[in-house]
């Protein structure tokens, strides 16, 4: 057996630092990681196969074998250490041994031994950057880098120091760069808010509490990056109480976003805010914003996970009052995902605290699509909800290197629709100076600014009256104009990238839904048809089964009477992430034994990380959800770092009145076990095809803690049967999306979806409308013939689909009408 107990010296090539490290410590760290965390969701498919399916008995020995070091652990470690000595933040995939690229997440346990510590480091000059990042900054850049550090403070955690050494995509987020001295951009992009003390308000129904003005680590793209903001005096507990008093006297406010800086490094303020806000009746949700889960996980793990335990205890207190805590966090790139961060997310969600992820879209970092699929799948498996992706990055002074044209962000959204689970696709949105808008539903690009090519005009969902209630100054801004339909256009710094995205202005119109009368007969028929068609959908490719349908590259629907052949198909198709259990005869939750059998089987399938149960009993027969059933589902829900299997309940809602306190009670019981309940809505003319009803559904469900997933605009069998000649109007869709965005919480926003014979597409993002006389057709932009042939080599287009000259599939949408 090799003698590994001696130490060796590690000398980093650029910084010149030398460390003494034991060979056995390094070997133990690698073996421990591979023994406990060899999972496809963490390592990626190729490296997972390499270490788990090789000829050796252990994952570590398979790694040695693949790298050409069979039986030579010490030689392998010496080679690895030499690679890490040279590793810096300027090279992608810097550690490769004989063609074996070691993922960043595998290298972190090694780096924790070589570069130990959990302290935070405030950087003073260029020399310190070079030492920490193990890189050489050209002498001619010294003055510029030092000026950047003086202008925009730089701070790292040791966790980020280790990640930056082996990931260019992480380093580009935190390391200072000379282009930060570029003056293009704004000091502040949020200019329409009411501000008083630590309180900011940009929306009628929610406010921001700035509890702390500093962060453990400073992101270079941050919209609060200016030194003046970071040097402000931190508020005290008396300031918190003043802000709480404003909320108490403002009954329209139902959500508080507690942020900073990072609010979790000001414990006194956080505790005061939670304690006082929980006593206000009209406050429903406290959203606690932190990026420390990604870049300083030790904040939550130190002192025996004191913060985690505190949050779970407070959330239980809030839930007793019908309220809840959510944690908002940012992840940008898969290389940021660590065992620690996933563990924190799973711990919070399993304790009944929702965690949602927002992602700035950064040029050269996460701007192509595949890395976003990997990132969102890893986070979703741990329990996180994927909320927003912001296009483009905020146009702040000093961050222009991160800007990309809007068209690139929309293209990434199309990629996600084709390659990611529908439950892993964020809302594609832009944070305008007066509030957020969702692309091509509640807002769009109107036209190029005629005076400055660096600006475009965006249609937003907001109106002058909206701001008159709390921030009338917004209506006096030079960057806004009122359009003919009565909403506000805003002047925004961005490049469009594709002029076909300019949609122009919408003329003034009389809303068709204002005089509609609710049709009870159609409503009752809608419920009956939903129950009738709640079973298996149509497969987009051939699967040779009557109990399984592949409805997307990543998703299958599986009848409760599934067969062994169905399971074999799922095992053989490694792009399948989600399994949706359905039944046409009786609700799947009435077959607890089959659910247990399926969950046990899927837990052993590495690439599947979600079991979704389609349950209409949740709405129509809620007493099916006994305490025993909830307990069973809770036991099956496996939120974990490695090889998770997340359980979710899917249901369908027609009208808001279907949601009662009983559904709220069940939702909370499931939530306490880390199980999300989400629902879809099929738009039915004469029943719910108007902004009042959809807004009411969104508002009610948010109060209950349910997630509003999709509004289906066309293509479902129920719509084929119900809507007939009463086509849904495109302008009504815009009105619905506008109202939900303007009046609701950002956490209420659904996706607007069209079902076709070859899959689902997003209204306005992954579709392009064309007309042929009275026939409405759409181009299905995410898909191609090769995409389907990868799932089924014998695939051919169905009769309802043809291709245009660019190879893009086109189909008819008979149930959508363009005025």
TrEMBL record:
Residues 200-426 form the Radical SAM core domain. GO terms for molecular function: 4 iron, 4 sulfur cluster binding; catalytic activity; metal ion binding. SUPFAM superfamilies: Radical SAM enzymes. InterPro entries: Aldolase_TIM, Lys_aminomutase/Glu_NH3_mut, rSAM, rSAM_sf. Its cofactor is [4Fe-4S] cluster; pyridoxal 5'-phosphate. Pfam families: Radical_SAM. Keywords: 4Fe-4S, Iron, Iron-sulfur, Metal-binding, Pyridoxal phosphate, S-adenosyl-L-methionine. PROSITE patterns: RADICAL_SAM (PS51918). It comes from the Bacteria. Coiled coil: none annotated. Belongs to the radical SAM superfamily. KamA family. PANTHER family: L-LYSINE 2,3-AMINOMUTASE AQ_1632-RELATED (PTHR30538:SF0), LYSINE 2,3-AMINOMUTASE-RELATED (PTHR30538). This is Lysine 2,3-aminomutase.
């Amino acid at each position: 057996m090799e003698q590994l107990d001696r130490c060796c010296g590690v000398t980093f090539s650029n910084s010149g630092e030398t460390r003494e490290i034991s060979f056995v410590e390094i070997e133990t760290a690698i073996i421990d990681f591979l023994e406990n965390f060899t999972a496809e969701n963490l390592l990626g498919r190729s490296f997972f196969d390499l270490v788990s399916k090789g000829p050796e008995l252990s994952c570590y020995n398979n790694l040695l074998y693949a790298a050409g070091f069979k039986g030579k652990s010490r030689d392998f470690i010496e080679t690895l250490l030499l690679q890490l000595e040279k590793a810096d933040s300027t090279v992608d995939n810097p550690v490769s041994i004989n063609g074996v690229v070691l993922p960043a997440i595998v290298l972190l346990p090694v780096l924790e031994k070589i570069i130990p510590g959990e302290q935070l480091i405030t950087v003073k000059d260029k020399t310190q950057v070079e030492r920490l990042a193990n890189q050489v900054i050209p002498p001619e850049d010294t003055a510029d880098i030092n000026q950047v550090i003086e202008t925009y403070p730089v701070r790292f955690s040791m966790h980020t120091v280790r990640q930056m050494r082996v990931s260019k995509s992480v380093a580009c987020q935190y390391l200072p760069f000379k282009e930060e001295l570029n003056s293009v951009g704004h000091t502040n992009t949020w200019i329409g808010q009411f501000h008083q003390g630590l309180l900011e308000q940009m929306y009628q129904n929610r406010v921001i509490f700035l509890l702390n003005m500093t962060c453990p680590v400073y992101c270079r793209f941050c919209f609060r990056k200016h030194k003046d903001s970071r040097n402000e005096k931190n508020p005290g507990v008396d300031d918190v109480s003043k802000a709480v008093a404003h909320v108490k006297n403002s009954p329209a406010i139902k959500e508080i976003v507690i942020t900073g800086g990072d609010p979790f490094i000001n414990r006194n303020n956080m505790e005061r805010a939670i304690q006082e806000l929980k006593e206000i009746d009209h406050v429903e949700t406290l959203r606690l914003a932190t990026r420390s889960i990604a870049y300083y996980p030790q904040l939550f793990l130190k002192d025996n996970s004191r913060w985690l335990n505190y949050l779970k205890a407070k959330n239980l207190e809030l839930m007793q009052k019908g309220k809840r805590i959510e944690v908002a966090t940012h992840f940008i790139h898969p290389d940021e995902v660590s065992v620690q961060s996933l563990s924190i997310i799973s711990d919070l969600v399993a304790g009944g605290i929702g965690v949602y992820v927002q992602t700035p879209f950064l040029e050269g970092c996460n701007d192509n699509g595949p890395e976003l699929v990997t990132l969102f799948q890893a986070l979703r498996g741990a329990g996180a909800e994927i909320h927003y992706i912001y296009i483009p990055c905020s146009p702040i002074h000093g961050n222009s290197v991160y800007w990309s044209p809007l068209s690139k962000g929309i293209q990434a959204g199309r990629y996600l629709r084709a390659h990611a689970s529908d439950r892993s696709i964020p809302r594609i949105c832009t944070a305008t100076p007066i509030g957020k808008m969702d692309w091509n539903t509640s807002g769009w690009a109107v036209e190029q600014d005629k005076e400055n090519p660096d600006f475009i005009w965006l249609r937003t969902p907001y109106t002058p009256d909206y701001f008159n209630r709390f921030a009338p100054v917004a209506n006096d801004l030079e960057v806004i104009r009122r359009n003919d339909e009565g909403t506000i256009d805003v002047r925004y710094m961005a490049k469009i990238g594709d002029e076909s995205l300019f949609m122009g202005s919408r003329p003034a119109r009389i809303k068709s839904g204002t005089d509609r009368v609710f049709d009870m007969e159609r409503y009752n028929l809608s419920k009956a048809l939903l129950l009738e068609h709640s079973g298996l959908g149509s497969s987009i490719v051939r699967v040779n089964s009557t109990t399984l349908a592949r409805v997307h590259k990543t998703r299958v629907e599986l009848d409760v009477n599934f067969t062994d052949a169905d399971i074999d198909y799922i095992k053989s198709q490694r792009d399948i992430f989600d399994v949706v259990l359905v039944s046409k005869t009786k609700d799947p939750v009435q077959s607890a034994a089959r659910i247990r059998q399926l969950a046990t089987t899927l837990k052993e399938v590495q690439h599947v990380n979600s079991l979704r149960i389609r349950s209409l009993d949740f709405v129509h027969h809620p007493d099916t959800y006994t305490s025993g059933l909830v307990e069973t589902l809770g036991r099956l829900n496996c939120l974990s770092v490695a090889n998770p299997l997340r359980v979710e309940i899917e249901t369908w809602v027609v009208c808001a009145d279907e949601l009662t306190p009983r559904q709220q009670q069940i939702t909370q019981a499931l939530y306490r076990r880390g199980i999300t309940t989400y629902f879809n809505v099929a738009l039915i003319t004469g029943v719910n095809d108007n902004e009042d009803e959809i807004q009411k559904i969104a508002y009610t469900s948010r109060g209950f803690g349910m997630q509003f997933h999709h509004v289906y605009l066309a293509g479902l069998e129920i719509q084929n049967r119900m809507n007939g000649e009463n086509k849904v109007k495109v302008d009504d869709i815009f009105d619905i999306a506008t109202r939900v965005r303007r009046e609701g919480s950002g956490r209420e926003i659904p996706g607007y979806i069209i079902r076709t014979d070859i899959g689902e597409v997003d209204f306005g993002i992954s579709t392009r409308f064309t007309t042929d006389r009275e026939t409405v057709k759409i181009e299905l932009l995410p898909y191609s013939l090769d995409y389907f042939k990868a799932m089924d080599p014998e695939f051919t287009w169905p009769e309802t689909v043809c291709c245009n000259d660019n190879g893009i599939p086109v189909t008819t949408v008979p149930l959508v009408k363009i005025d």
